[in-house]
Amino acid sequence: MVDIQIATFLLLGVVGVAAQQVGTYIPENHPLLATQSCTASGGCTTSSSKIVLDANRRWIHSTLGTTSCLTANGWDPTLCPDGITCANYCALDGVSYSSTYGITTSGSALRLQFVTGTNIGSRVFLMADDTHYRTFQLLNQELAFDVDVSKLPCGLNGALYFVAMDADGGKSKYPGNRAGAKYGTGYCDSQCPRDVQFINGQANVQGWNATSATTGTGSYGSCCTELDIWEANSNAAALTPHTCTNNAQTRCSGSNCTSNTGFCDADGCDFNSFRLGNTTFLGAGMSVDTTKTFTVVTQFITSDNTSTGNLTEIRRFYVQNGNVIPNSVVNVTGIGAVNSITDPFCSQQKKAFIETNYFAQHGGLAQLGQALRTGMVLAFSISDDPANHMLWLDSNFPPSANPAVPGVARGMCSITSGNPADVGILNPSPYVSFLNIKFGSIGTTFRPA
C-alpha cells in the first residue's frame, strides 16, 4: 500500500519543497528549565528557558501514516531510496519527555534518567524559544551549574557541553529541513558522528549500516567544534575542548570524517585530574565529594580580558558546602604545575603522553575562541559507551596498556567495568541532575559562604 500511496502523492503534486517533515501524532511540548544570567552590577536574573530532545532519538515515520522509516534492516527502501526522497516522505514526531525518555525538569533542575522502559540514554538542547536553540557567547564570561553524579556508576557519562550547531537547527540553511530546532535537528560534534540520521536536510541513507531498528551509521558525518565542559560519573571527570578547521556544522564524507586527521580534533586537550596526577581529587569522600551535589565553575579568559580578545585560557574550580575548591594542580613529569587549560599546557600534555597534538593542528584555543565568539549551543546527555565502555574517562585506556605509563590511567574504575549489558542491571536507576545553570561576567555566578 505504501507504493500506491506515494505514487498518488506524487501525482497530486503534494511533495515538492517540503522535506524532513513534522509529524502530528504526538504533540511537541518543550519542558521548561529556568536559567540565570548574571552581571556585576545587577546580580542574577532568571529567565524561563526550555529544552528539546535531539532529533536522533525521535520516531521517524511516513508522512502518509505510521510506517517507520527506519527498521532493524535499515532505511525503508520504498520511503527512503535516497536521502532527498527520504526527507520528503519521512517526518519527525513529538515525544513524551518523562514517560518515554525519563527526562524531567522542575524549576532550575534537569534530571536525565539512564533507563526508562526500553529507552536507554538521551540528549537534549537548551532553547531560546520554541524554534531556536540558545547560543552562548562565552569569551570573557563564566558558566556555573550544580551537578549530582552520585548515582552515575563506572561506564556512564553525564555530560554538559557546547557544540557549534546552527541556532535554528539548520532549517534556514537547508531547504530539506522543515523540522528545525523545534524538533532537535542539526546535531554535530568533533567526532563527526555518522549515526546522525538527517544531515543537511537529507537522510543519511547512503552506506547505512543498521545496528538496531533506530540506530546505525551512514556514509556521512556531521562535524563541528565541541567544548566538553563536563563529562563525568561518580568516579572521574574531564574538561575537554575540541577544535575543527571549520567551526560551524559541516557534513563530512570519506577521509574528512576520520578522527583527528579529518575536519576535527576528536581527541581534544583534556583536563582529567586523575590522569594528570591527582588521584584523590574527585570521587566519593574526596576533595570534590561526588556523593553530594557541588557547583562547577568554568571561566573563559581572553588575551585582553574583553569579549573581543583571543581565548587564551580555560579555568576551572568547584564550590561545595560553601567552600571554593581550586582545580587540581598537574603532577606529571614534563607538564607544568598548572590547573587550567592553555595552549602551552596542551602542547606539554601531548608530548608527555606521547600523543599527537591534533588540538593545535586544528587551531587550538584561538580556533575555539572563534566558535565561542559566534555562539555555541548547550547540550546535556546521559550515555553509555558500547565501543570502549567509557574506559577513556574513568579507567585505564587503552585497557591493554601499562597503567604506570603517563596518561593511561584516567580513573579508579576497573578495565572490566562499563559493559552496557551490565551497567543498568548492576546499578539500578542511574541518573544525572543539572541544576542552577548560570552564566555571566567573570566572578558573578557563584557566591561562596
TrEMBL record:
Pfam families for the chain: Glyco_hydro_7
Gene3D superfamilies: Glycoside hydrolase, family 7, domain (2.70.100.10)
One GO term of the biological process aspect: cellulose catabolic process
Enzyme Commission number(s) from the entry: 3.2.1.-
Signal peptide limits: 1-19
Keyword flag Glycoprotein: yes
CDD domains named in the record: GH7_CBH_EG
InterPro entries in the record: ConA-like_dom_sf, Glyco_hydro_7, Glyco_hydro_7_sf
Chemical reaction(s) catalysed: Endohydrolysis of (1->4)-beta-D-glucosidic linkages in cellulose, lichenin and cereal beta-D-glucans
GO MF annotation: an example: cellulase activity
Highest taxon above the source species: Eukaryota
Keywords: Carbohydrate metabolism, Cellulose degradation, Glycoprotein, Glycosidase, Hydrolase, Polysaccharide degradation, Signal
Family listed: Belongs to the glycosyl hydrolase 7 (cellulase C) family.
Protein name in UniProt: Glucanase
Organism from which the protein derives: Phanerodontia chrysosporium (White-rot fungus)
